[in-house]
Design brief:
Arc Repressor Mutant, subunit A; about 75% helix; Tetracycline Repressor, domain 2; about 200 residues; 2 domains
């Protein structure tokens, strides 16, 4: 790998760590350079500025999350099993790459996102909404907008992800299992009661 590529990787990693630990606005380009072990001017050989760096990180995180949804959706299984698989993949990601999960699922950078970043975010939502639509089609997911259903499912899972990120829970803890069940319950079709 070329030295320029290694430098770029160090910059990206340093920015990711700082943006997710102290926030985008509190992170300065001198701090990123110090963390990466380079001169501040080197940042501008790779990026036009801090906002472009954030957008590159965001797109990478969105592509990662979309890949997980597509991996889970690719299994020949009912939607409930696909969502269980996706949940497990996200939990594992929170352990292996906590900063990526924080950046994409816990920090709101909407005003700073460029159009390519917004597009990658829509691809993630669209992939997740597709799984919800499959559940609606087979009668296992309740009626309603797939955008709302996807948000409800993901919102409940975020409780477990957050606890994993702060290392209160492990991926196999009872709390994670409870959140996974509650996420499904939030979107599951209701059985008609016998009268």
């Amino acid at each position: 790998m070329k030295q320029a590529d290694l430098t770029r990787q160090r910059l990206v990693r340093a920015a990711l760590e700082l943006f997710t630990a102290q926030g985008y606005h509190s992170t300065t380009t001198p701090a990123i350079a110090r963390r990466a072990g380079i001169a501040e001017g080197t940042i501008y050989r790779h990026f036009t500025g801090k906002q472009q760096l954030l957008n590159e990180l965001y797109r990478g995180a969105a592509r990662w999350a979309t890949k997980l949804v597509r991996e889970a959706d690719g299994a020949p299984a009912p939607p409930r099993e696909k969502l269980a698989r996706l949940s497990a993949l996200l939990m594992g990601g929170a352990v292996r790459e906590p900063a990526v999960v924080r950046l994409f699922l816990f920090q709101d950078h909407t005003p700073l996102l460029d159009e390519p970043s917004r597009t990658t975010a829509r691809e993630f939502r669209g992939a997740l909404e597709s799984v919800m639509a499959q559940g609606k089609a087979d009668g296992t997911v309740r009626a309603g907008g797939v955008d709302v259903l996807a948000s409800a499912w993901l919102g409940v899972l975020r409780v477990a992800l957050e606890r994993i990120l702060v290392r209160d829970w492990g991926v196999t803890s009872a709390g994670v299992q409870l959140c996974q069940a509650a996420a499904w319950d939030a979107i599951a079709a209701r059985k008609a009661s016998a009268e």
